Amino acid sequence: MTGTTGDGDVMDDKPIHGGEPLPDDAPTTMMDDATRLLNPSTSSGDEAETAPPAAEPTPTADHTPTTEPVEATDTPDPMSDTLHPAMATSEPEGEPADRPTATVSAGDVYAGRYRLEQQLAQRGGTLTWRAFDQKLSRSVLVHVLAADDPRTPDVLDAARKAAFATDSRFLRVLDAVVGENPGEPSLVVCEFAPGESVEKLLRQGPLSALEAAWVARELADAMQSMHAEGLFHQRINPDTVIITATGNVKIVGFLIEAAMYPDADEGTLAWSEREAADVIAIGKVLYASLVTRWPTAREQLLGDDGEPRRSWGLPAAPVDGRGWLTPRQVRSGVSPALDIICDQILSDAPRHNEMPLRTANQITHALSKVLGTADGAADLERRMRYPVVPAEDSEAVWETTGQMAVQDPMTSTDPFTPVPRPDGQASHGQRSHGATTATPAHAVAAASPATPSAPPPRPRPRAAAARSSRPPRRRWLTILVALVALVLLISLIRVAMHKDDSGGGLLGGDEAGQVLQVASVADFDPEGDGGNGQENPDQAKLATDGNPATAWTSVVYLNDAKLGKLKPGVGLVVDLGERKKVGTVKLTLKGSPTAVQLRVPKDSATDKAPTGSQKDWTTVASLPSAGTSVELKPEQSVESRYLLVYVTSLPKVSGNKYQAGIAEIEVQS
């Protein structure tokens, strides 16, 4: 039976100002295992200060959700660091150690399609495996629950409810399988989405203002529709927010985690309290992304040993009499607009008489005003491809005063501060902005050679000096212009010769411009390019019905005109019935701008249209920003039975939604 991705409801700690800490039995959170399979994750040395003893890492260091341990205090901290579940020697604190565990092994096949391949983690009686979907030939992530596990009905029910979260920014649950035979385990099958958690990215240092605002806006925008339906995450944190290899944001653990590791008090929380937990959590992720500090409740700043407590690998945010210091008070260079938004979210009484932000919709609008048309996905993708190497850790000194830990903001070190060069100049890529660097006297003395200076070089002849001072790129510019002129001349000669051979027409004959009959048309969305064959194939015939009011349309994509960065393109395959000479293809499109191409099979003699990948086609004409009326003309004469009208960038239909539409296709000889 089919379910969906989900996450549960655990109440985050409230703001310092007037908020109450969580109950002692507050559960810890866990991130979906699929999100870190590209990069192994191990526990840091800082985490070991507060985490329980850990065993040696398993042979597979794939990332699995992290769980924060609870100190043996009267008020547990749900935001403290822990070891990776796959590396823990015992059950996480707060989780029953006697829960039944399913007995499975690699190679087992369930529901006739899911073959277990590698165990990634075991936590609280739940096994997490990487599996292979034999029906759709793809990797998936499987949570295995024992047949006699009392949580199974609630977990499967949560998976079904999470099916409502169809936004691509949620990690989807693909299937929920009930064990049919006695002793057979039940499964929750999740999407496999490799990437890095924000927690791991923050180990490199803070995100840029664009990246941090983009991540927080994506979280709020995705959650606002769920809040409207009465569904809440309540476990948003740096470990449950994933950045994929393409820079997209993925939210993991929607409804499923709360069902796997329930909290008895969650059922008593009001709608407004659940929503407030999500809103505050989004604000904390934004705060941590800007300053690599985690807003921790005042009562949980210090551990039993008197040392500062860390959460998600981050030290606690410094506090004053009003609560957490704002990001600009912690780290210089933070955007003033984002500093205000953080305070509006996390403070009961925002500074400077600003209005508080209490809903995901309000956060979305506030961050959208700051971002404008900027897109942080490209920057995040670059960060994923080329990780930032952090500077040597220079942790600020913490001073303990009573129950409050105070940090001097001026001691906070920016890991990205450029290191001055030995010669006193700014490091490469950094402007001096008119400032000069004073050189100490002892440095000047050390730089002065003890031996006499060498004699000056003999002056070169004036002519030689003039030749050497000539900018070398001018010579290349001259060569380039000559080459362009030569190519243009050759092209004109070939065109003139072709006209003479064909009787005055570029395509020759009296049939040039004749409308060719289309035998059939089909949608093009191959699995080899990430498609699923569901680009409205039943509408394909509308593109050649002679009625511009009807059209074939693609499915709607979110956030990016390039099909949400999910696939290279989609389109329609036109069958002319037999090989014919093609001169012009006229298109009537819906919306603009649209990037559209005309392609023919690489094998011109094929009697079957290639449907495996767009790589099997050759582009003969293209327009990167077409309007609603388009003419695609191949530069050279083309003969083919099959034509592919291929769209690589979609026009915007509303907000962050993009969709292509082709109303009419007319092929002329």
Automatic annotation (TrEMBL):
Residue ranges, compositional bias (Low complexity): 50-69, 435-451
InterPro entries noted in UniProt: Galactose-bd-like_sf, Kinase-like_dom_sf, Prot_kinase_dom
Gene3D superfamilies xrefs: Galactose-binding domain-like (2.60.120.260), Phosphorylase Kinase, domain 1 (3.30.200.20), Transferase(Phosphotransferase) domain 1 (1.10.510.10)
Residues that span the membrane, as ranges: 476-497
Coiled coil region boundaries: none
Gene Ontology MF terms: ATP binding; protein kinase activity
Keywords, ordered alphabetically: Membrane, Receptor, Transmembrane, Transmembrane helix
Protein name per the record: Protein kinase domain-containing protein
Region (Disordered): 1-103, 407-471
Domain of life per record: Bacteria
Domain Protein kinase, chain residue ranges per copy: 114-389
